[in-house]
């Protein structure tokens, strides 16, 4: 194993730092990185990888990756490079055993010359770092690693149970040091409202959090995209250090690395139009092209030079450019480097020691332990990230003050009856509507879930259960705060029982509204689309809940298609029953005598029995238990469909 961290050459990059991976580094990190050491997988090889999709436009087969071979040994870091659309991500997904959305995908991927015993075994031995690695902004750097360890399907959780917390802490400290994040350990990752660590540090944290599960093979999709050259160099340099010290295999697609970042890689797979144009040592790529008559000018970034050579997108005369590209590709297949690769592949297959099984050390955490860890993580996020609940609490408090002061101290007279009804409708509908503010926080959790699901950490059930449970106390607090202010200011029926019944219905309203947000945001995890759909759904529920058009008047389509499973119907109906079923209102007295707008059995006493108002809507008391059951059913239904959506997206 060599330790040759290159120093950066360009002046835009830190030239005082040395890339980790030196002999002193190996000693320094020996103990802290013991868990990362790869003694199991000696190489990964792939042969004849061909991925074909159904062309979106023509419907005809389109080959994205065409008969690609390669071999990367333990301790090597390989760059997958090529112009945009050359098939890098597709190949990376195929190698990492992830979905490629292909019509057909063929070819073999071997570990130490033999196919892995199963997809699950391969995944346990490897990890994939996404291009936009989702991190939770409200967690600190150390917490991010700690939760990854606790959720991890291999070693992390096993350690928490068996070898203890200290061992996990030691691993986390080791990773913080290895990725230069020790000083940021207690810094927040960063939310839109609270600045956190830099983009490069986030990327390093994303890589480190995948390493906590001790993978032997790492796949990274453009780990430097969106970073400046200095930050990009640091990411690859730290990665190289860890790979060298621990004999890991690293394969990373990379867009346009700077010279010094490019030189950190040991091997290069250069692709264009899905085909291999070069696979071999980085140091031999310029000689290869020189032998084809393409001398690299001095002072030119080799990566840029190579990308320009194999890119036909901007060619003035495209046909001749494509023809020239084909000739270069043909020249590669006949080159000595290609022959060496063929021989190395044959040797690797010849030395096969049978399928490699992942270490048995790590146990999968139990479902309960996963849910508790997710609850803990969501709880930390809930009180630290104001977007999750604090802003909503402020909003609901503002809404309560506004509603309470607009409908201020209504009296039990007939002129207050319509304002009472309006207030009931407005409060319940608006509370539901404002649940839309939960969308960004949920989409962040969703993205995190997708990433962690792909890495085999936990599934849809653990996600849905923990998400549901963590919201309950907050929603109850919202309901209590909103009701405590608006109920008494408005002067709804002033009894404790009526008040707590009211709180219950506001709580159920919020529970259903948040479940609707979860469902629609799971279906369309894009803020704008989810927002539009949630607003539309709320608009629909408001129209058909019985306030705008009394249920008996509602046309049959809306009544039978939407009204009965509109959760706002049950909230509105029960709040109306709560206010009117046991209250009596005075009629107006004029010079001509008593004038009652609602005629009830109390008209001769110049009073209106509240039930008379309920009769107009067809509402009767005594159905609260049943209606609570229906509300729970609707909440459960939303969650169930959201769970199915998450399952299908797996
Ligand atoms: N079903 C499809 N029909 C047509 N083209 C497709 C289809 N699926 C993928 N492609 C195209 O195939 C090409 C290969 O995609 P891939 O993401 O693997 O390339 P890439 O080299 O990683 O590109 P980039 O560097 O831009 O991420 C892209 O141009 C993509 O748009």
UniProtKB/TrEMBL annotation:
UniProt keyword annotations, A-Z: ATP-binding, Hydrolase, Membrane, Nucleotide-binding, Transmembrane, Transmembrane helix, Transport
GO molecular function ontology, one term from the record: ATP hydrolysis activity
Domain ABC transporter stretches:
44-298
Domain of life assignment: Eukaryota
The main location is: membrane
UniProt subcellular location: Membrane
Q: How does it sit in the membrane?
A: Multi-pass membrane protein
CC per GO annotation: membrane
Q: Name one Pfam family in it.
A: ABC2_membrane
Q: Does the keyword field hold ATP-binding? A: yes
Q: Where is this region: Disordered?
A: 1-23
Membrane-spanning parts: 386-408, 420-443, 464-487, 499-520, 527-548, 628-646
Matching entries from InterPro entries are given as: AAA+_ATPase, ABC2_TM, ABC_transporter-like_ATP-bd, ABC_transporter-like_CS, ABCG_dom, P-loop_NTPase, Plant_ABCG
Report the PANTHER family cross-referenced here. ABC TRANSPORTER G FAMILY MEMBER 11 (PTHR48042:SF11)
For this chain, the family text in UniProt reads: Belongs to the ABC transporter superfamily. ABCG family. Eye pigment precursor importer (TC 3.A.1.204) subfamily.
User: What is the protein named?
Assistant: P-loop containing nucleoside triphosphate hydrolase protein
């Amino acid at each position: 194993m060599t330790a040759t961290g290159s120093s950066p050459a360009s002046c835009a990059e830190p030239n005082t730092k040395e890339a980790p991976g030196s002999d002193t580094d190996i000693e320094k990190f020996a103990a802290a990185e013991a868990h990362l050491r790869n003694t199991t997988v000696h190489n990964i090889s792939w042969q004849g990888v061909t991925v074909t999709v159904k062309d979106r436009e023509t419907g005809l087969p389109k080959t994205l990756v065409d008969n690609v071979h390669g071999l990367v040994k333990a301790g090597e870091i390989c760059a997958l490079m090529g112009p945009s659309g050359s098939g890098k991500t597709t190949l990376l997904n195929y190698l990492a055993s992830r979905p490629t959305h292909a019509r057909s995908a063929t070819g073999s991927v071997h570990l130490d010359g033999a196919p892995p015993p199963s997809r699950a075994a391969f995944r346990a031995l490897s990890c994939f770092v996404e291009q936009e690695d989702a991190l939770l902004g409200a967690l600190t750097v150390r917490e991010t690693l700690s939760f990854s360890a606790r959720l991890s399907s291999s070693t992390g959780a096993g350690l928490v149970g068996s070898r203890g917390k200290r061992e996990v802490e030691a691993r986390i400290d080791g990773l913080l040091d290895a990725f230069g994040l020790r000083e940021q350990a207690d810094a927040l990752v960063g939310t839109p409202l609270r600045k956190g660590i830099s983009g490069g540090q986030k990327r390093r944290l994303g890589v480190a959090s995948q390493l906590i599960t001790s993978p032997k093979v790492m796949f990274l999709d453009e780990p430097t995209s969106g970073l400046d050259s200095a930050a990009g160099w640091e990411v690859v340099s730290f990665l190289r250090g860890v790979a060298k010290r621990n004999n890991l295999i690293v394969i990373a697609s990379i867009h346009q690395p700077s010279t010094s970042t490019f030189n950190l890689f040991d091997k290069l797979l250069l692709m264009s139009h899905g085909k291999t144009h070069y696979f071999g040592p980085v140091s031999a790529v310029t000689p290869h092209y020189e032998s084809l008559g393409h001398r690299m000018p001095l002072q030119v970034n080799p990566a840029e030079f190579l990308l320009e050579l194999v890119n036909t997108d901007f060619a003035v005369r495209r046909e001749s450019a494509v023809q020239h590209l084909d000739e270069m590709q043909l020249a590669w297949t006949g080159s000595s480097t290609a022959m060496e690769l063929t021989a190395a592949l044959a040797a690797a297959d010849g030395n096969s020691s049978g399928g490699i099984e992942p270490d048995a050390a790590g146990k999968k955490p139990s479902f309960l332990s996963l849910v508790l860890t997710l609850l803990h993580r969501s709880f930390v996020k809930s009180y630290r990230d104001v977007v999750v609940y604090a802003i909503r609490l402020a909003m609901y408090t503002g809404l309560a003050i506004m509603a309470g002061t607009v409908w201020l101290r209504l009296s039990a007279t007939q002129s207050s009856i319509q304002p009472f009804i309006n207030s009931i409708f407005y409060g319940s509908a608006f509370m539901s509507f404002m649940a839309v503010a939960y969308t960004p926080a949920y989409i962040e959790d969703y993205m995190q879930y997708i990433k962690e699901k792909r890495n085999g950490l936990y599934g849809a059930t653990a996600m849905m259960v923990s998400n549901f449970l963590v919201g309950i106390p907050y929603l109850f607090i919202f309901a209590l705060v909103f009701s405590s202010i608006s109920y008494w200011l408005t002067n709804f029926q002033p009894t404790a029982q009526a008040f707590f019944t009211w709180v219950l219905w506001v709580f159920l309203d919020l529970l259903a509204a948040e479940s609707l947000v979860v469902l629609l945001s799971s279906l369309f995890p894009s803020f704008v689309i989810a927002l539009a759909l949630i607003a539309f759904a709320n608009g629909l529920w408001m129209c058909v809940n019985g306030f705008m058009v009394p249920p008996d008047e509602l046309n049959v389509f809306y009544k039978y298609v939407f009204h009965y499973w509109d959760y706002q119907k049950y909230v509105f109906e029960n709040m109306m029953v709560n206010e009117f079923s046991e209250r009596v209102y005075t009629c107006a007295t004029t010079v001509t005598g008593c004038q009652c707008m609602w005629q009830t059995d109390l008209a001769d006493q110049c009073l209106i029995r509240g039930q008379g108002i309920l009769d107009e809507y067809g509402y009767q008391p005594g159905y609260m238990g049943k209606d609570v059951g229906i509300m729970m059913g609707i909440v459960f239904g939303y969650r169930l469909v959201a769970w199915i959506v998450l399952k299908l997206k797996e």
